[in-house]
Amino acid sequence: MQQRNLAHIASQAFNEPLLLEPAYARVFFSALGKEIGISRLNLPDEQLTTSDMDVITANFMTEGKRKPRFYQVKNGIAVLPVTGTLVHKLGAMRPLSGMTGYDGITARLEQAISDPEVKGVLLDIDSPGGQVAGAFDCADVIARLRDEKPIWALSNDMACSAAMLIAAACSYRLNTQTGRMGSIGVLMAHSNYSGALEQAGLEVTLIYAGSHKVDGNPYEKLPEDVRADFQAKIDAARDMFAQKVSEYTGMSFQSILETEAAVYDGENAVSIGFANRIVNSADAIDVMSSELKLKPITRGISMIDEAAAQATLQAATMQERQRISGIIAHPEAVGREDLAGSLALHSDMSAEQAAEVLKSVPAMVAPNTDVVASITGCDAAKGREALAGVLSKEPGMTLASAERIMSGVPQGSSDAFVQFMEKEGAQAAGGDNAGNQGDEIDQLASIIKQQG
User: Fold this and answer.
1) Which of 363, 322, 71 is nearest to 202 (CA)?
2) CA distance 212 to 234
3) Hey, where are the domains in the chain?
4) Where is the Peptidase S49 domain (predicted)?
5) Within 279-384, where are the H helices?
6) What whole-number distance in Å separates Cα of residue 434 and Cα of residue 411?
7) What pLDDT, in 10s, does the model give residues 87-133?
8) Which site among 40, 162, 256, 399 is 20 to 30 Å from 340 CA-CA?
9) 113-117 — which CB contacts under 8 Å span 24+ positions?
């Protein structure tokens, strides 16, 4: 639910000089009074009751008022920003948190195409790409709408990967002299936490039905058959990517594949066929207006439209920020910071939904950096650096215990000692158990001495 700071609005509206047209002032104070609970509004020539204020507000909203624009219009050109990481569904009309939703691009584009004052659309792109999900549908919508009105793309200063797909779907493509275009390829990342979990003494057991249900899980090394399946999907997505760019631009499918996902700067992007011409970004709108033979348009800015658009943007921005901070700062994110960040920035989960996901993943216990520094930096660690490194990571290890252990090992033989410990699975524990295990460590040290 969007929240409005009515108290702040009221403080700016009452006991302050305002520059408002009288008829609109009547509407404004009726709407504000209704929201903050005023039962009667006294105007110079009339008194308005709550019912009167309702009628005035309702009439104003239904008298053919144009929807707020979520783009700027200059000389008949609607400028739509496409910035940051591109994601499937952002649930907002403008970029938030460094991301742009494919749904936002198509929604704003459809509004601009239906706007009678808009003669053409310029996508102002500065994006390294993003998700595959939603990208091809968005590009197809752009390619379809460009038959209704010209849709140009400006790489300002990056249109790569998914952003290149969006640019390719446009009628005409501009690039700045330092703009980067291309990267027509697909990638996938797999995380393997099995080693870290083993070091932390944690074991994850997956219980599932269906042999492919846990393909790509982060708790084991990626099996070769699963890797081959993922590679096949990646290859198919790349072929689809290249085919779409070929259809949109007229370039040959093979020539696109032969770029091997390379990125081209400035004039090189024009030479390869990704861009049509180089422009200064400040001149892009004028260049497009000139090509379309549009006359400069001068019109006033609707205060109502701009205020409504700004209020919608501010509310959506605040809501998204609260969602992201709620996930990252949630208690369940401790020890799972990377996953929490991914859920916050690459999904539309609420903080509560993300907490349930985080709770199901074991938290990673980070070594005590103070203990690590004290052990690896003590005098006893000199000539026994490898052993000091191992001991500093042992759970419960103290500086005193580590010094006693290292003092029983000759300088220079710690590498052999570490190898022996790893082979035999010996562990040195500090704290209350240090005394009990000290003899074992001394015996191991003696063995190392005997070995030479």
Assistant:
1) 363
2) 17
3) 6-62, 303-359, 369-451
4) 144-294
5) 284-291, 303-328, 337-346, 351-359, 369-376
6) 22
7) 887 654 445 456 888 998 999 999 999 998 899 999 999 999 999 99
8) 162
9) 113/145, 113/148, 113/149, 115/69, 115/73, 115/78, 117/73, 117/76, 117/297, 117/299
d(CA 16, CA 40): 20
Helix then strand count (H, E) for the chain reads 19, 11
Q: How far is CA 319 from CA 17, 195, 308, 345, in A?
A: 32, 38, 17, 14
Q: How far apart are the first and last CA of the chain?
A: 73
Which amino acids are annotated catalytic? 161, 213
- What digits encode the pLDDT tens for the residues 278-324? 999 999 999 999 998 875 544 444 444 555 656 666 676 777 778 88
Whose structure tokens read 């348009």? 297
- Is 6:37 a contact under the CB 8 Å cutoff? no
Buried b (16+ CB within 10 A) or exposed e, 438-449: eeebeebbeebe
Cα separations in angstroms, 122 against 86, 90, 107, 187: 17, 21, 15, 29
Helix (H, G, I), strand (E, B), or coil: what is residue 72? strand
Would you say 409 and 386 are in contact if contact means Cβ atoms under 8 Å apart? Answer: no
Q: Over 70: is that where the pLDDT of 417 sits?
A: no
Residue 420 in 3-state DSSP?
Answer: helix
Residue 439 has pLDDT above 60, yes or no: no
**CA-CA distance, 11 to 7, in Å (whole number)?**
6
Three-state DSSP at 175 gives: strand
Residues 6+ apart with CB under 8 A from 254: none
Query: 15 - beta bridge partners?
Result: none
In the DSSP assignment, the letter for residue 281 is G
Using a 10 angstrom Cβ sphere, with 0-12 exposed, 13-18 middle and 19 or more buried, the burial of residue 2 is exposed
Q: How confident is the model at residue 366 (pLDDT cuts 50, 70, 90)?
A: low
Which tokens is 232 given? 């096949």
Look at residues 237, 77, 108, 112 and name the one whose alpha carbon lies nearest to residue 165: 237
Find, among 172, 197, 144, the residue nearest to 361 by Cα.
197
Radius of gyration of the chain (CA): 32
pLDDT digits (tens, 9 = 90+) for 194-233: 999 989 999 999 999 999 999 999 999 999 999 999 999 9
Please name the helix (run of DSSP H) or strand (run of DSSP E) that holds residue 315, with its range, or none.
helix 303-328
Closest by Cα among 115, 146, 141, 139 to 125: 139
83 touches 100 (CB < 8 A): yes
C-alpha 113/C-alpha 115 separation (Å) is 6
d(CA 404, CA 304): 76
